[in-house]
Amino acid sequence: MAPQGRGAVSDLRLRRVGATSTASLEPVGSIPPVVGAGGVFGAILKAGGVARTLSRHSPTPSTTSACR
Question: For residues 58 and 49, what is the distance between their CA atoms, to the nearest angstrom?
Answer without folding.
Answer: 14
